[in-house]
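Is this the right way to post structure tokens for a design question? Let me know if I should format differently. Anyway, here goes:
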């Protein structure tokens, strides 16, 4: 999750992704990698 904040584009596509990821898995950082 910490990496997400480091990602510049993450700020934009993070919210939408978080909404979906939160439902399935809380490991969003893994998907970003």
């Amino acid at each position: 999750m910490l990496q997400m904040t480091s990602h510049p584009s993450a700020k934009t596509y993070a919210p939408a992704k978080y909404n979906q990821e939160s439902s399935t898995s809380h490991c969003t950082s893994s998907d970003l990698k």
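Format looks fine. Someone answered above. Worth noting: The chain has three helices and no strands. The mean pLDDT is 56.
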